């Protein structure tokens, strides 16, 4: 898999840090880990990531809404992480969903799927 720039949207700092470390270990460049809808939109507009990995249920705002706002300026491949895949599937039937907890292999598969599904 080629090296890509990734924006992580995760409101749990420990999860965001661990995910960032795993992605760096996979050879990817994590441009930022943000925890709010507003920060996600701002950072995506500034850095134009190759992929968004977004927690669907943020404490401040909503991950699905953040992706919708980001996509108004152009398409960015994305996948959602969640503990409730059914809820996300109801809102976004075509979404790439990575259900928590997940392992590195699941993450790699979801990234590949998001990049090929949206190409």
Automatic annotation (TrEMBL):
4-aspartylphosphate modifications at: 55
All copies of domain Response regulatory, residue ranges: 5-115
An annotated GO BP: phosphorelay signal transduction system
Keywords: Phosphoprotein
InterPro entries: Bact_response_regulator, CheY-like_superfamily, Sig_transdc_resp-reg_receiver
Keyword Phosphoprotein tagged: yes
Keyword field contains Transmembrane: no
Descriptive protein name: Response regulator
Source organism of this protein record: Sphingorhabdus profundilacus
């Amino acid at each position: 898999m080629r090296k890509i720039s990734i924006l992580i949207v995760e409101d749990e700092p420990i999860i965001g840090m661990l995910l960032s470390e795993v992605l760096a270990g996979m050879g990817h460049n994590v441009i930022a880990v943000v925890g709010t809808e507003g920060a996600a939109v701002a950072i995506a507009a500034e850095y134009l990531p190759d992929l968004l990995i977004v927690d669907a249920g943020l404490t401040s705002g909503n991950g699905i809404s953040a992706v919708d706002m980001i996509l108004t300026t152009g398409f960015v491949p994305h996948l959602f992480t969640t503990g409730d895949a059914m809820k996300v599937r109801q809102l976004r039937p075509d979404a790439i969903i990575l259900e928590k907890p997940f392992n590195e292999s699941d993450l790699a598969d979801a990234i590949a799927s998001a990049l090929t599904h949206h190409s």
